[in-house]
Every structure is written in C-alpha cells, then in structure tokens.
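Archive entry. Fields below.
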Amino acid sequence: MKNTYKIEVDCANCANLMENTARKVNGVASAVVNFMAQKMTVEFEDGADPKTVIRDVLKACKKVEPDCEIEF
Amino acid sequence: MTGKQKKMLRSIALSALLFILANAARRMLPAGYVREVISTVLYMASYLVVGYSVLRKAWKGILNRRPFDECFLMTVATLGAIALAVYEKSGDYNEAVAVMLFYQIGEFFQSYAVGKSRRNITELMDIRPDYANIEADGTLKRVDPDEVEIGTVIVVQPGEKVPLDGVITEGSSTLDTAALTGESVPRDCKAGDEVLSGCINLTGVLKIQTTKEFGESTVSKILELVENAGSRKSRSEEFISRFARIYTPAVVISALALAVLPPLVRILFLGLPGGWHVWIYRALTFLVISCPCALVISIPLSFFAGIGGASHEGILIKGSIYLEALSQVKTVVFDKTGTLTKGVFEVSDIHHSPMEDSELLELAALAEAASSHPISKSLQRAHGREPDRSRVSEIEEIGGHGVTALVDGKRVAVGNDKLMRRLDIPFLNCHSSGTIVHVARDGAYEGHIVISDLEKPGAREAVTQLRRAGIEKIVMLTGDGNAVAADVTKKLGLDGYHAELLPGDKVRIVEQMMAEEGSRGGKLAFVGDGINDAPVLARADVGIAMGALGSDAAIEAADIVLMDDDPAKIAKGVRLSRKCIRIVYENIVFALAVKFGCLILGALGITNMWAAIFADVGVMVLAVLNAIRALRVRD
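PREDICTED_STRUCTURE:
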C-alpha cells in the first residue's frame, strides 16, 4: 500500500528531517519526501491502517519541524 | 507570495522600523538613563518582532531533544551577542538585532526564490487537464476528467487540452504536442486518428471518443512519472543530507571549543588575561556562518531544474540518480530497429533492370498482388497504386522462395535466389544489404529490387551529436543478419555491431559491455524502442526508451523515456545532465569554500558577525540562482 500526500515544508533540510522521522514511525515501510514537488510518498507495512499511521507521521514530523503540514 | 511569506515580510518591515528608531534614539537623545531605557526597549522590541519565530522554534527543538538546527544556532549567537553587550555595558545591541534581522531577510528571500523557481519548473511540466467537455442536450458540460468513462464522446475546443486518450470521431485540427514530446511543429489530425491526452488543440473543434480512463491516459502516466522523479535520489543528494546531519553538531562543538580553549590556554600557559569576550564573540560568529542551507537547498533544486528542463524537451527522467548516471555515460548501445532505423521495410534500390524502374516495380507488385507478406506490402507501397488484379492469373506462391504468376499473359517469377535457381534462371548477385527480390519474365532475368529497413532521418545527426557530447563508443545490437548490420554501422559511422542476436543474447552482451565500461569508471546507456527489449532496458545502467508514447511496458522498464522518436534527443539529454551535474558540483564546492573560508576568518577574528550573515545569505542566493541554470541547455 503506497500513498502520496501533499506536504508543506519550508526548507530542504527540514524536508530531510521529516523523511527520516517518517521512516521511523510504526507501520511505515518506507517514506520519501520530495521537497521540490512538496510531496511525501509513504509506503505502509502490510496490515497497517494508512489513516492512523499517517496521523502518527504528522505528529512525529511536527515534533522535528513545528511548521510542517501534511494533507490527508 | 504565500500567507506565511507575507507575514514574514510584515514582521521584517516592522522590526526594521523599530531598529531605525532605536538607532535614532541613541543618537538624538541626550546621554543618560532615559536614553538607555528607550533605546533598549526599542532594540528588544525589534529583536523580538523579527526573531520570535526563531526563538520559539529553537525552544521547541530543545524540548523535542533536537537542539542542533539553524534556529538554535541563531538564537545562541544573537542572545550571546546581547549578553556580551550587557556585560560590556555598551548599550549597543545593533549587532544582535541586525544579525537576526538579516537572517530573517535571508530566510524570506530563500523561501521566495525557491518557491518561485519551484512554481516556474512545475508550470513547465503542468500538462494536467482540468476538465473534459461532454455534450448533453445540445450544451457542453464540464466534468472532471476522472469521471469520464471509456467510450464517452468528449468535445475539445480550440485552445483546450485534450483531457483523455481517444480516437477522433468528428472534426479535424492541428495539435500542439510540445508538452508531451518537446516537438514544436504542430501535428495535423483528422477523424479516425488517435490522439493522446496532454496535447493542446489549436484550430478546429474535435469530437473524441475516449479509449482510456483518466488514470490510464498518457497524461496521467507522464505526470506520475515526473512527480515521482524526486524519490530516487542521486548520490550527491544523499551526500548532502548525510553531510548536513554531521555538519551542524560539528560546528557547534567547534564553536564551543573556540570559546573555551584559547582563553584557558592564555590563562594557564601563557600567563595572559583570558580575553573571554573576544573568543566568545568569535565563537558566536562561527555559529552564524554554520547554517548548511545553501547546500541543502541548492542541490535538490539543481536536480529538480534539470529534470524539469529535460521533461520540457520531451525527455522524461525517472529520478536524479538516472540524471547523474546519464552524465557519466561513455558507451551508448542502440537496438537497431525502431531507434536508428524505422523498422519499416521499403524499396531502396533497383538494379540491373533493362526496363524502366517503375515498370519493373509494377510487374513485381502485380505478381505479388495476392500476397500479404511484408515484402509484398512494401512492393505495393513503392508501386503506389492498387494493382489491377484482372491482369494477373495463375498465381502460385512457393513458400520460402517467392511467387510465380501470369501477368499480361507472360510468365513472371518474383522471389529470392532459391527461386531463380529452381527455375534455372541465371541471376546477378547483389552487393547491397537488405532483402533482394529478383524478377524474371518468360525465363529472362529482368533485374532485382532491394528492400531494406531505412535509417531514420535524424540517426546520422544523432550519432554526430553523441560524439560531440563526448560519448566514446557507440555500438548497435540487432537480430538482423550480418550484412545489414555492417551496412548500417558503416553508414552511420558507429564503432561496431553485434548481429543475429536473440533477445536473450542482448542482455548478455549488454552485461558484458557494462562490466568492461564499469572497470573504466564509465556508464552504459541502452537505447531501445521498448518493443522486445524491456529486459535490456531494465538491466542497463541507463535504459532509454524511444518513441515510447503510449507504450506502457517501455515506460515501466526504462529509466529515461524519450517522448518522441528523435534519437538526437539522447545527445541533448546527455548535455543537459552534464550541465546539471556540473552545477551541482559548482554549488557544493562554492558553498563549502565560502563557508570554510568564513569559518577560518571568523576563528581568527578577521571577520565579524555582519560579514558572516552576509556570507551565509549571499552564498545561498547565488547557489539558488546557479541551480536555476540547469533548466536550460543550448542546442
């Protein structure tokens, strides 16, 4: 299961931080942030519910980058 | 400008005003307690207005145990400068406030410049249709292309984008396919023609019966490909994100060492006064210079611009890693059919005929009138007219040999060497490559027709350009015979060929050549039309699919997709990728050199905080402007 989300993040370094953070969230198999396209592609682990997982991803990302936003 | 940027600009303006007022108060008011209070309040107001968001972020960073970001650096540097001013009782907070102010101006400019170039690039690639027109009860209704089912008739008016793939049922027009193929000459189309979504209808109203859903349409496929391009990151990008991870902590630790060690050495070993404030100031300058943003931002931006510029030319690159690989390509391997040659057989020559060429062609076409063999088809095409079947009788096809028939009452034989031998007709051998069709009438030899796969118009030019772009070796692979391959190789000026290959052999040969190339440090690109070479496309360092518009398998397997089938685009892609990589290296070297230069000057106390902040912002701006150059490549 793979989904792409529109994100809002100001600097490329912060985008890297978001990517690294998202990868560590439970239920996320892999995550890639494309700063230029302002998109995050998340591959979920089997059996994970994308809706709750992406909420956790946003929560974790807010911690490292308070200004970021993920639309879902 | 986004809302965030407007807010930022307002706080910068307000802060600058307070800053000027504070300076005015210091100069104009008489010295004394009142002046100190007024100017200090104004300075602090100015500092907080512009620096509040930075302070807040730094605080949050500490709370979340992620202290080493740029906000933290700026906070420590400016608060440190304020503390020094208080310690020295100078009442001069200019430096702290100005550094914060300039830092935010730099941030604003960065956000604006990056946002703007991001939009420019995305606009280049914007081929997404917003709506489709459906005719209902005599009026046009706009609907979301996503909701249109297969087989629906949609109406496309002049100036609109074709939203879905389909077949024209009514109307004729010219189409601008530039967004898809980079080809600037508009294409004519009429009823019965297939049209691809993403083209722009220029002149007439078209009614199109859709053949695909939106998600399966060409435009969706391309968008998906381009938007996902960023996910496969190049080595340079990986390097930068790893670099940024260790760089900031390293600088903070160095700054700490710079603040503490020299004074301690002076006190303990040299017997001198510590001069703490000097070294703390230098350490703070260090922190200001340390932000890695110029690097972190300009590298992905360069790649994004490179991929954007390429897709504008009809060259779709699936990720910056392939852009990087393409720039290192030294060997290009072509699959012959569909890339260098048209893959359509045509009459290319007629030899040794005592009669007129057209007459011989007519004779052959008449004799072959009933055959559906590709050779027969190319004879019919060259003849140009529907053969008059009433002139032909007693047609006999001899499998693997040819055809004999009575044409205008005379016994005509059309076929290969074997047929001539079988009928005991002496014939002349041909030195041309290609398929030879001998013609005889009433037992007398009348000459032969050469049918061959024609080279593409741009093929020779493409080879020249590749050489000029610095490609060292150009090789052709083909399933055809040796003679044909040798001929094409010679005509186009290639370095060699491998002929009579089965699809599996191609993979083996490409792997072999890749190993050779790899030992020299170069990369190999394989160019195919994606029809039966998908495994090779997938296996090569860089798989380039040509003329792949509408061929899903090729788009899937290839790393780089040329939207039209002009082989000259490959050289252009190589040049574009080299330019992009050059810009990336320029930015890395430039940003690092300036940063380290400033760090050393800062440590020696030659530069101050003002110069440091200008170096930081200036490098970032120049790097971003440089990155944008990757968007274009000269012809």
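CURATOR_NOTE: Strands of chain A lie at 2-8, 28-34, 39-44, 69-71.
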